[in-house]
Each structure stands twice: as C-alpha cells, then as structure tokens.
Write a structure and sequence with these properties.
The complex is a heterodimer. By secondary structure, chain A is α/β, with parallel strands linked by helices. Chain A has 14 helices and 14 strands. Classes of the chains: A alpha/beta, B alpha+beta.
Amino acid sequence: MSLTRSITEWLLSRVQPDLIELGTRWFRLLRGTWEDGTWKIKTAAAVPAPRGIIFTSYLTTCIFSDASIVTAIKSLYGGVVPRETYATLILPDQAFHVGTLNLSTVIIKANPIAALEREVQNTAPMPLREYFLRFEVGMQHGNRSLIPFCALSKGVIAELEQLFQGIGIQLLSIQPSFIGTAALWKQIDQNPSPNPLALMHLGNEATTIGIAGNTGLKRIQLINVGVKDAVNSLSKYTEMTPDDAESAIMKELILLDDPTQEAQTEIPAYKALESTFSTWLHKLYGILQLHAAEVPADITYRQIVLSGGGALWRNFDRLVADNLGLSVTRFESVLGSRLTSAFAGIDVRGGAQGFIPLLGHLMLRPWQLDRLDRMAAT
Amino acid sequence: MTTAFEFLQRDSRQIHTGRRAPVAFLASTVVFVIVAWWLSSSASSAQREYARQADALRKRQTEFAEQATAVLPPSGQLDDLEMRLARHNEMMIGRQVSWTRLFSLLEDALPAEAIIVKMENALTGDSTFNAGDNNFRMTVAVENADAVNMLYMNLSTMRGIEGLSFTPKGDVTTQGRASTIVEVVFQFREGD
C-alpha cells in the first residue's frame, strides 16, 4: 500500500460516516454509534423517495431525475449537506442480482471464479461483465457448498458515485440492505439454535428471503414482488389512492384473525390481494423446500421472521403461519424496547422499524478498512 | 457472511477535501514561511548585536584593568609601606608576632609530604608564647629525603625566617606512615 493510500486510510479511520439508505419508498439517513451492545443515535431522518429512481438488476442505470434525487438527499440533511460528509450507502436488495449456488466443493477448490461466473451468468439478466460480482463460500454440506452471491451493475455504481460526489458526500461503502438485517438478527436472536429460520423482508418492490442459522446467513433469494404490488392491486380494485390502500392494509380487517376461515375469501379487498399473497407464500414455501432438499440437515425450521413494510400489515403474520405451519414473529417485536430506546426522543417519518437494516449496518460498520481487506481476501 | 458484499472499489475511498482545505493549506504554508523567515532574520540580527556588545564589553573590561593597574602604587612602595607600618606598630605597642602571617608562610614552605608534629618556644622549651616571642622550634615529620630538602630550601629562602637550624632526628612512624623527624629552629621577623 502506498504512503498516500496509508495516509488516506488513517484519516478515513477517524471519520464517522453517515448511513444513507436509498429505497424506492423512503430515503433514510442514520448517524450514530454502536457501543457496548446499544445504539446511540444522533440523527435519524426519512423523506419520501422521489419517482426518478429505479433499482433493478435489469438495468445499467438507476437515476432518471438527478434534480429530484439530489433535493431528496439534501432534505435528509435539512437542505444543506455539511462539509466533509462521509457516508456508507445502503441500496435496496432488488438493485442487486442476488442468489445462492449449491456447488461441488471439488469445483470450488479447483477454479471457483470460473464456475461461479458460469452459474451466475445462467440467471443474470445482463452479461456478467456489466456487474461487479461478490460472493462468499458459505455453509458446506457433504461434498457441496452453498455460495451466496450478489452482483451490482457497474453503471449503477458509477452513477451513484458521481451523484454523491456532486452533492459533496464522499462514499465509503456500498452494500445491499439484507446484510444489515441478517447481521442484526444474529445479534438479537434470543434462542439461537442449529435449526435454521427464514428471514423474510417485505420491501417496497421486492421481497428478500434469507435462510439463517446460528452462524449467519446460509442462503439468500430475491422475489420480485413487494409491498408496492399489493398496494397497487388493492388501490386498483378499491379505487383508493395508494396511500389510502396502504393504510387500509395496515389497519383494516382485510386479513382475519384466522385467515384459514372460509369467511376470509368473502372479503372483497382480500380478493384483490390474494394473488400477491399467494405468490409470496408459494415462493417462500419453494425456497424453504429447496433449501431442505439441498441441505438435509436443515429440514426442520425454527420460525419465520418478518421485517419490512409488509410485516406491519394486520394479521399478515397469521396468514403466513397458518399456511406454512411454522411460527411467525415480527422482527420489530423481537427488537422491542431496544428499538424504542434507540430512537427515544427522535421522531422519524415512516416509523423507526424502517431503520432496522440501517441499525444492522451501523453495528457492522462497513466503512472500516479491515472489512474491505477481508472482502479482497475472499 | 456480511463482510464479502462490499461494492465500492477501494480506489474510490478518498479524503474529501473540497476547495477550502487546499486554499487553507496554501495560506497557512505561506504564513508559516513568512514567519519562519522573519524569525530567522530576527535571530541573525540579535546574534550580531550580541557579538558587538560582547566585544564592547571586553574592550571596556581591558580598559578598566589598565586603569586599575595605573592607579595601584608600585609593589616596592607597598612593601616599604608595610615595613614602616610594622616598625611603627612595634615602637608603639612592642614587638608582636603575627601568627596568621607565620602560618601562611609555613603553609607555603611545607611540602605535601610534611606535617608539623609539634611547635614550641625555642627559648623556654614550652608550648606557650608571649606576644613578642618569635623564636620557634618546630618538629616536622617528613616522608622522604626529597621533601626534607624541599622544606629546607623553602624555609631558607623565605623572607622573615632567620637563624634557621635544620636537624634531622631519625625515622619514626607518624599517622601510620614511615617518616623522618626534623627539628627546625628559626626566628620569625616581620617588617625588617
């Protein structure tokens, strides 16, 4: 490492970066520290995401209206971004091409990169050269290993770097949202056990399903169905505005306390949402079955943990539990008082539960150099 | 898990300086150079001033020494004055012996290897002296022959010591060391 690089890293080790999450529903800012097992939040802010940003692994671009995005990011700082601002950027999971491979350990030892690239290219919507590919050799079972991978378009990275440079924010890290959620669950899991559990994050445009064990995340999959699809279906069916439809799902009795009752199908709003719910349940069931088939040791699941906007819907946890026969808990309720005390005296739009992935990232401190070193080693 | 999925390239990690920081750095560098130059020139001129004043001080010191030398009377004149003072004192209050001057002379005369063992009145043989008693008998222990010779030479050439009798008495052990006992008899006269 050159002297200049050493000096740069030494200076960077002394900065306290902000965490910025660019979602398709909210832009969020979090500033604080994680010390002695608790968060000390100094600033938390959320503003509605403008329409000019689209995150998908199918495109090499994500920004379609610079001005509106710049305005939204600046409004996180009250209109003016302070000088010498450093930030670590969290992107929604659908911005990445995410998946998990189950490869022979012999192949991985012989030439892992070539095998990985070949397998990822089979599912990636664009040529692999358009992506930066990151992966980790995970759980080994028999003579095979699970390899979660994550790819982000090079064009998107360049675009975001240029955007933040223009605003006066120096980026120190770009990571997907699910990293924070998984790490946070590992930290707060009250009953760690060898049996795996499913982390289901219902995001605005996509749903991320992770299979986690007591050692961390084993499998990660993405479903391109999100809260927005359900809200749009209900909005179209009931001719409500999307905001009203979202509010209705959260508060109205669309899902009964026992969603398996026949009366459930007689609720008109449920009919509008049934196909979306069905997609979620089928995909989740499929991923659980696939994992159990590939990893026989993980045939017994502990529970399903719901997070994201959809986790707040009334009786949605019961719907999942009754259909899949597993206990379901909400991430927010497990965090409980820790979340409340972290945000004591801080009022944020959209609720504190939206900051769950950011709290996980704050705990991980992804801007630290040793993390990048480990990434390089991988 | 969770450490491998970093997508920001390492080269993109930079220190954000903006425009003000380089300007502030340049300005502070210029100020530093100017202050350093000013301090350096001030130190040089202060050093020159110090050297000039030190020279002037040395010159004045030499001048004062010369003036003081010119003011002092000649040494012969001082000795003559001292002798006259002693003579007048003797005429007024009788002959007196200055023990201070005697011991000062003896200190100069005795080599390092010699010590006075005993001193007595040469006329009475006692160790008591009246004010005008100037006949002394000294027993001196001397370590070696060279020191004996040096003691004799010093006493014999010393002004104020008269009637010198120098008699070696034999070898003894004094203060744990072998030495020769010498009996020295003399008359001490001042101001003659």
